[in-house]
Every structure is written in C-alpha cells, then in structure tokens.
Specification:
By secondary structure, the protein is an alpha+beta fold. The protein is built from eight helices and four strands, in the order ααβαααβαβαβα. The protein has a four-stranded antiparallel beta sheet with strand order 1-2-4-3, sandwiched between helices. Helix 2 packs across helix 6. It starts with a helix and ends in a 10-residue tail after the last helix.
C-alpha cells in the first residue's frame, strides 16, 4: 500500500491510458472515498457524471470532430487568467513546452500540437470520463470545496492502481456536455477528468512538471510588525 506521501507526491496528469475497463464498483468506491472531502457546513456541492462505453464514445466523437473543425464554444467562466503575467506565464510555458518536448514536438509543429491537444477530448483514451458540475448559485467557498473533492478523487484512485488527468480543456465544449448529459441549466460545468489504468509504455507519461520548493511559497511568521 502507498503511504499518504507517496499517493500525493507521486500523482501527476496521465495522458495515455490502457483500454482495460474499470469496474463500476471500483469507480463508485473511489467516488465514495472522495465524498469524504471537507466542505463548508457539509454542503457537498459536487455533481459527478460518469461516462463509459457508447455514451463516452459518442461524446468523444462529437467533441473531437468539432475541435478539428474549429467549432469551439466560449467558456462559461475563465479558468485561466485573462491576462497572463509573471511568474505564472513562465510556469505555464515551461509546462507546455516540457510536455511537447517530451513528445518530440517542436515549436513549428502546429499540426502535431493540435493533434496532441485534441486527445483531451478523447479523455486520452481512458475508458472512463468524469464530468463535474456545480449549482450556479453557489459562491466561491463551494468552488474551493470542490477542489478538495477533485484532489481526493485523484489521490484515492492511485490506491487502486488507477490514474487520472483533470481537464479544464472540456470547458470549450460545455454545451456538448450539458446537452448530451442533460445537465440541468441551473448547473455549470467545473471540469472533466480522465480515469483509468495508465499506459506505462507511453513516453508522454514520463513527463512531470517541476514544482516550487517550499521556500518559494511559504512564509514562516515569527515576529509581527509593530503598529
């Protein structure tokens, strides 16, 4: 069994999966574990839509086709900054070019970049696609709670040999998901997530972006400034 440290520190976004089916009972077990995530006043603001088999395949076909034709929707909310600035721009670029570099995709290989990004909409061939939604009238606190729930899924899955890839990319096809899954109009799409058994032979899964050392994001307050 993994230690907590191994489960958290070893997690990374997996972008190539085996076709091995994931039993429904195992999916339910992972989600039940994640459902223990904390939320303010225990409101538990999450809604999860599990896609497998023909349902998953139909949505993938529509989304990939629309992406290839450039028929994307305007996102319902901005996941990323509207205007990038440092240090976030540098980190974003390092992640993107690091991934493409792992795959041997150069900066002029626009077609290969397009093809790689399109794999988002095939859930990177994972047999399970998860879609998450939240009631529109909930406030920022519930969105913070949602992040803890999503992290819990990703960590819990690892305990059963499964891996994941959280996907903001699906936000450009929120209308496809809303229509196909009959998600109520009173809910908005938070993100998607691929779930399955990782393909250990695919080099894309060797990519792990760098993380900041603790000293870069932590301040130990040992003395208060005098007023």
């Amino acid at each position: 069994m993994m230690t907590v440290e191994e489960a958290v520190a070893g997690r990374r976004s997996i972008r190539a999966f085996l076709p091995t089916p994931v039993p429904r009972e195992l999916i339910e077990r992972v989600l039940a574990i994640a459902g223990r995530a904390p939320s303010g006043s225990n409101v538990q603001p999450w809604h999860v839509w599990v896609l497998q088999g023909a349902v998953r395949d139909e949505i993938v076909r529509e989304a990939v086709g629309r992406y290839d034709r450039g028929e994307v929707s305007r996102r319902e909310y901005n996941y990323y900054p509207v205007k990038w600035r440092e240090p976030y721009l540098a980190r974003r670029r390092a992640c993107g070019w690091g991934l493409y570099g792992t795959l041997g995709i150069g900066r002029e290989d626009k077609d290969k970049m397009h093809a790689q990004h399109a794999r988002n909409f095939a859930f990177f061939d994972a047999p399970v696609g998860l879609v998450f939604s939240i009631d529109r009238d909930l406030e920022k606190g519930s969105w913070l709670d949602y992040g803890m729930f999503l992290q819990s899924i990703m960590v819990a899955a690892r305990g059963f040999g499964l891996e994941t890839c959280p996907q903001a990319a699906w936000l450009i096809f929120y209308d496809v998901l809303q229509r196909r899954l009959a998600i109520p109009a009173g809910q908005t799409i938070v993100c998607g997530m691929a779930l399955g058994y990782p393909d250990p032979a695919d080099k894309v899964n060797t990519f792990t972006p760098a993380r900041m050392p603790v000293g870069e994001f932590v301040s130990f307050v040992e003395k208060l400034d005098a007023k």
